[in-house]
Amino acid sequence: xxxxxxxxxxxxxxxxxxxxxxxxxxxxxxxxxxxxxxxxxx
Length: 42
Known about the structure:
The chain has 2 helices and no strands. By secondary structure, it is an all-alpha fold. The chain has one domain (2-35). The longest helix has 17 residues, at 12-28. It is elongated and about 35 Å long. 0% of the residues are buried.
């Protein structure tokens, strides 16, 4: 995360928070459940 933050010009915490939000969105997207063996959990 340190390197990513440095390249993006933001703090490592920003990278961590934004990554977490993006992954949560991907996990809860009903359209993407077709590509996994998991049920969508809101």
